[in-house]
Design a protein that fits this description.
This protein has 823 residues and is mainly β. The chain is built from 7 helices and 44 strands. The strands form 5 sheets. The chain has a 22-stranded antiparallel beta barrel. A 6-stranded mixed beta sheet has the order 8-9-14-15-12-13. β27 and β28 form a beta hairpin. The longest helix is centred in the first third of the chain and has 20 residues, at 2-21. The protein is globular and about 100 Å long.
Length: 823
């Protein structure tokens, strides 16, 4: 009897083992045939044999369009994919007990018959959430048809835009801007001004890389902001012939914008181009300042009031060419030109000095004008070749960028001066130029199932120069002032190597990398005060992230990275700006590389109707670069130094909820505690700061789209003071005509109360400054765009012979999935 029990137990174990051995994981990826992007939340049904009445397994694709579906048994099976507005896709496959079966890449295309009748209940998710980055789908946000890139950034997770359009990423103002995965020097140096001039409809996605891996350059404490422009993908796996395009014009109370986009493909060659020009004006801005200085003579007071007009002109042209040379190699070429022209015209100012060393006081008036012109060129060539298989590749890249900038400033006073201040008219003419040559080689290779290794090397030749000429006298009889002029050159050679490992082990994903960068620096003073010097240093930059997939719709992650910030020429340049007779501004050539450490815990929850991201972060930096002020010889000096210990703890949240088929609610905000300390200045400042954007998108009758956004920021802290908060309300009404080819929008923007008023306060040992800036941001704009094209798709698709009615009775898809998983 005992032997029979043993035999029975062994038989049961063998049957169980056999059953498990016959379970095969069927995997693959489902893509949209037009965009070549993953098809998210497509329903998957698997049937045994020819019986298509009851599925034996059901699930949905993830945000990437990938699927991994366990299937029990052997024999013939049918897998069926369905998605709203798309033609169904089926595949027949055989299982013989293997561990996995890879169906490869499958494509879905639009079902033109269904698109005329289908009622969309769930909207396409705007945000793709990952542990180390977020991707905001600008092209599918209705506001992108009328807003600028800066306005869209207010909706992007981990990004904050304050009342003066200052941008922070992951809580830091130090970040890098990439365009199509490549660094853009001009946009990194002046992102706010450029983004407020760029129409959002030229951008497809905005990626916020909060934990850049070892492959990325180490610069950018807050991470990387990557703009993916609208263009045809020359590396797409499907073929399209024809062209598409959009032209757009916008006019409003603050300026006008014109832009155009076109893409075309013929066989293996694709071409895309973006062009735009914008003109913005900001009249009747006012600046009021009150500065108090304490010295041996008592309290000296400066009262300053200015009214000025600002004009910005921005132009950009971008062209990209893609060529699939053969089945294993492709070539990409791109070039872009951007031009930014900023002018402050007729800045009439009045200044009153009194008390302390000024006795009974005196006053004077001035007229200030400034012009800044920045033109940049970026060109790149990328060659990719697959090495035996599609998941093993080599990429060779070269990029050249040049950014010349010219700045002219004029200050004209109503008197020549007195015993306290030099009020001689003055003029400065500065020319800055930055050039980069970048060569890079990257390899990607699999190490095993779900494991990859990326490694490569990069060399950057970075050259900067600044020639600043200073003149005194009366226009046009200005006299060159040699003492106040400077010509400065700064050369960097940066050699980098990296390796990054990524692995997926069931529900656990892991990525870790190490990057080393060595910098050779050479600084020369052609003329002006300063001594030539050279130095070299190395930086070892680690990064890691750990992800746990709680379910198909949620994950939890922990990330760490170290980021650095090399001071740019505007921070290093020791040229002394004497435009203002009461203050001096200059850089510091002794600045060191800033090193910051960031730890993030991330939770993502996503479904076809609800998406949420929570990110708890801690960052610290012991040598942060900070702008600071001090008094010397009765003049306020402004410069930079590695003088701050910066600690920040914050919680960011993002919610996107499709409440109904016609209503979407958005929330993007965060709260943080900042602690800034400096032994050099014997100063500490700390406190809570918060920001929030709440938006509602509503589809009205006649398919009119209404979008309303409210934005609010509390005060934010600096080492010596704070910047006040703001409240802004914006609304957009949008309607499409002519089968969505013609789009018309009306946009309104206004602060909650009158003008936008920003207060900046700073305090030192012997001074206190309060500045109030009033900006009339109220605006009404009309936007009109027209889309055209004749693209024909040639991707092969297999039409399904199974009708949904064959197996959908009175159960919803979620009920069917739950029933099957419960069995």
């Amino acid at each position: 009897m005992k032997n029979l029990k043993v035999l029975f137990t062994l038989a049961v174990l063998m049957l169980v083992q056999s059953a498990f051995a016959q379970k095969t994981v069927v995997k693959g990826v489902l893509l949209d045939s037009l965009t070549n992007e993953g098809e998210p939340y497509a329903t998957i049904r698997i049937f045994k044999g020819k019986d298509t009445t009851t599925p034996i397994a059901m699930s949905v694709t993830d945000l990437e369009g990938t699927f991994n579906q366990p299937v029990s048994g052997k024999g013939s099976f049918i897998i069926f994919f369905s998605s709203v507005g798309k033609e169904s896709v089926t595949r027949n496959f055989e299982l013989n007990g293997q561990a996995t079966l890879d169906l490869g890449t499958l494509y879905m295309k639009d079902d033109m018959r269904q698109l005329q009748e289908v009622e969309v209940v769930a909207q396409k998710p705007l945000v793709k959430m990952e542990v180390d980055k977020m991707s905001y789908d600008v092209s599918n946000d209705v506001d992108a048809k009328s807003n600028t890139v800066l306005e869209m950034l207010r909706k992007v997770p981990m990004v904050t835009v304050d009342g003066q359009d200052n941008i922070t990423v992951n809580g830091s103002s130090s970040f890098k801007v990439y365009v199509d995965g490549k660094p853009n020097v001009m946009m990194s140096s002046n992102p706010s001004q450029i983004f407020k001039s760029m129409p959002a409809n030229i951008v497809k996605n905005i990626e916020v890389v909060t934990n850049p891996g070892a492959k990325y350059d180490a610069e950018g404490v807050g991470g990387v902001l990557n703009l993916i422009l609208n263009k045809q993908n020359g590396m797409a796996q499907q073929s399209m012939d024809g062209y598409n395009g959009t032209v757009r014009a916008m006019v409003g109370t603050r300026g006008y914008v014109g832009s155009g986009y076109v893409s075309a493909q013929q066989g293996k060659v694709s071409l895309s181009a973006n062009m735009l020009y914008s003109h913005n004006k900001m009249n009747d801005m006012t600046v009021d300042m009150n500065r108090i200085q304490h010295d041996d003579n008592g309290k000296s007071i400066m009262e300053y009031a200015q009214k000025l007009n600002m004009k910005n002109n921005f132009a950009m042209g971008n062209i990209s060419l893609g060529w699939d040379i053969d089945s294993i190699s492709n070539l990409g070429i791109s070039a872009s030109i951007t031009d930014f022209d900023n002018r402050n015209e007729d800045g009439l100012a009045g200044t009153r000095m009194s008390g302390g060393i000024y006795g009974n006081g005196f006053g004077y008036s001035s007229k200030e004008n400034s012009k800044m012109r920045n033109t940049s060129f970026n060109g790149s060539v990328d060659y990719q070749r697959y090495l035996g298989r599609k998941d093993r590749s080599m990429t060779l890249s070269y990029m050249y960028t040049t950014t010349p900038q010219r700045t002219k400033s004029y200050s004209v006073f109503d008197e020549e001066g007195n015993t306290y201040l030099d009020l001689t008219d003055r003029y400065s003419n500065s020319r800055n130029r930055t050039q980069e040559h970048i060569g890079q080689i990257d390899f990607v290779t699999p190490l095993g199932k779900g494991q990859t290794l990326d490694f490569g090397a990069k060399y950057t030749s970075h050259t900067s120069s600044s020639k600043s000429l200073y003149y005194l006298g009366t226009d046009p009889q200005y006299t060159y002032n040699e003492k106040g002029s400077m010509f400065y050159k700064h050369n960097d050679g940066i050699l980098a190597g990296y390796a990054e490992y990524a692995g997926q082990f069931g529900k656990v994903g892991f990525k870790s990398g190490l990057r080393y960068e060595h910098t050779w620096q050479d600084v020369k003073y052609v003329f002006g005060s300063g001594s030539d010097f050279t130095k070299n240093y190395g930086n070892l930059i680690p990064s890691a992230n750990l992800q746990y997939n709680i379910s198909q719709t949620s994950n939890l992650g922990l990330t760490y990275n170290m980021r650095i910030s090399r001071p740019g020429i505007s921070y290093l340049n020791p040229y002394v700006d004497r435009t203002n007779p009461t203050s001096l501004t200059y850089g510091n050539p002794d600045l060191e590389v800033e090193k910051a450490h960031n730890i993030n815990m991330v939770y993502n929850l996503f479904s076809n109707k609800f998406m949420m991201n929570l990110s708890l972060r801690q960052s610290f930096c012991n040598n942060a670069i900070e702008q600071y002020n001090f008094y010397q010889d009765n003049l306020l000096n402004t410069t930079y130094g590695n003088i701050v210990k910066n600690r920040q703890t914050g919680l960011n949240s993002y919610v996107n909820w499709s409440l109904t088929k016609n209503t979407r609610i958005l929330f993007n905000g965060g709260v943080s505690y900042v602690d800034l300390r400096s032994k050099v200045l014997d100063t500490r400042n700390h406190g809570w700061q918060a920001n929030a954007m709440v938006g509602v998108q509503q589809t009205l009758p006649a398919k009119i789209q209404l979008s309303v956004n409210a934005m609010s920021n509390t005060k934010s802290y600096t080492l010596q003071g704070y910047r006040s908060g703001f409240n802004i309300l914006s609304a957009t009404v949008n309607k499409s005509f002519c089968k969505d080819k013609l789009n018309v929008s009306v946009i309104g923007v206004t602060p909650f109360f009158g003008k936008l008023n920003i207060k900046n306060y700073s305090k030192g040992k012997n001074f206190e400054t309060t500045q109030k800036v009033s900006v009339p941001v109220n605006a009404v704009l009309l936007n009109v765009s027209w889309s055209f094209g004749n693209t024909k798709h040639r991707a092969k698709q297999i039409k399904s012979n199974i009708s949904n009615d064959d197996y959908i009775e009175h159960q919803s898809e979620s009920e069917q999935i739950n029933n099957i998983s419960g069995n």
